[in-house]
Amino acid sequence: MFDRLSAKLAQVFKKLKGRGKLSPEDVNAALREVRLSLLEADVNYKVAKAFVEQIKGRAVGEEVMGSLTPAQQVIKIVHEELTRLLGGESPKLDLSGRPPIALMLVGLQGSGKTTTCAKLARRLKSQGRQPYLVPADVQRPAAIEQLKRLGEEIEVGVYPADAGQNPVAIADAAMEAAYTQGYDTVILDTAGRLHIDAPLMEELRAIREKVKPNEILLVADAMTGQDAVQVADRFNDMLKLTGVILTKVEGDARGGAALSMRAVIGKPIKFLGVGERLDALEPFHPDRLASRILGMGDVLTLIERAEAAFDKSQVKALERKIREESFTLEDFREQLRQMQKMGSLESLLEMIPGMKQIKALKNVKPDGRELKKVEAIINSMTPEERRDHTIINGSRRRRIAKGSGTSVEDVNRLLKNFAMTQKMMKQMGKAAKKGRLSFPGLF
What are the b/e assignments for 34-54, b being 16+ CB within 10 Å? Predict the structure, then answer.
């Protein structure tokens, strides 16, 4: 995410750090490169210009020139201004009012609107709400069936709409059904087009007038860059949006849409779609995204993902096994499964501060298939082998490799890595017994 922009800014700041004192000329030269980097990242021209001017007003002055660490001060200012550009505070959904309240999702075809409805429903359900999905898109033949299938997957109610019904009538009837059946949040999946046209807007305005939604959220494809910003601007003019959900952010190496959206349309980005899985929807935190862009990581989001992924009872069991020095391949497999719930390895690595600056990792693209291969190898073992890997001799290794569709080399590599992990766990267990190690929070 935003790899190109991060790499360019890292180069700029590296040059600044190589100088002791900074002159106004040094700062101006760096800011010219920052501006060029933003334009190459497809940031709106006016936004990039205003952003650089804002930094310049602070950087060419006593705040930087009189500092003992001028380069760090410039980076601090850039971080603060990036956070401000992205919206400053983390925006919240408006879920106030007498239930059921409505959330209306709008956008063009192909932006991921229907899937985002399900992702949002799943998130709200995990927070204790009772969401109700409503397929009000009768234009796309498979939209109703798709939402129904997604609702079943996340175990959320879906209004039984018919493709022959009027979308406004569907929305109206769905609100009544939600009230009688005890749902508190109605999520409307509305029709999209390949482009904005008058009939589409009339339909969306009619639905808005009928259900009076708390939120009208535009679902926009981040990978379309400034096109997404222009689409948002037009939807906002016609519908008065309350916010934006940017999808496909994990594939956007530039970041132009995210950095331009708030400044151009004046509406906050409320969520980021960061993958295809139904749990891949993150609240938008301007300060955290600014840190990621500048290679500072995002530890808070990493912790939140871990807390959501790891079952507390399993964490307690792991703590006990570490203390008892009884960590087995079955435990190793379970930890890999828990990690996979947190998202791709690549997305996790970029949240760790400094990882983007490590040269050895520059071109590393962690492959989730490797984790599946490891799990397949462990699954091919007998319960006895999983509990005591030292009994796995040559013939057993050949059998395991054949059963898992891998090679003996793959099995050997896993056993070697596990032996190292087990050794580390034993050291942790001994330290815990002596009181030199505690496990607050995670363990």
Answer: bbebbeebbbbeebbeebbeb
Q: Which CATH number is 310-433 given?
A: 1.10.260.30
- How far is Cα 133 from Cα 161, in angstroms, rounded to an integer? 10
Domains of the chain, by residue range, sit at 3-85, 101-296, 310-433
As a whole number of angstroms, the distance between CA 224 and CA 240 comes to: 22
Which amino acid appears at position 125 of this protein?
K
- The reply to whether omega before 383 is within 30° of 0 (cis) is no
pLDDT tens, position by position, 84-112: 888 888 888 999 999 999 999 999 988 89
**Does the domain at residues 3-85 carry the CATH identifier 1.20.120.140?**
yes
Smallest CA-to-CA distance from 63 within 78, 49, 48 is with 78
- Decide if pLDDT at 54 tops 80: yes
Alpha helices in 155-298 (DSSP H): 167-181, 198-211, 226-239, 256-265, 286-293
pTM, full prediction: 0.69
Contact between 284 and 272 (Cβ < 8 Å): yes
User: Structure tokens of 411?
Assistant: 């099995």
Q: What is the rounded distance in angstroms from the CA atom of residue 94 to the CA atom of residue 169?
A: 24
Domain covering 101-296: architecture:
3-Layer(aba) Sandwich (3.40)
pLDDT tens figures, 5-36: 888 888 888 887 776 677 778 888 888 898 89
CB-based contact 249:274 (threshold 8 Å): yes
State the sign of the Cα–Cα–Cα–Cα dihedral 19, 21, 25, 30: positive
Beta strand pairing call for 215-221 and 243-247: parallel
CA distance 258 to 285: 12
d(CA 350, CA 266): 29
pLDDT at 313: 66
SS3 at position 242: coil
Q: Are 95 and 214 in contact (CB under 8 A)?
A: yes
How is residue 265 written in tokens? 């349309």
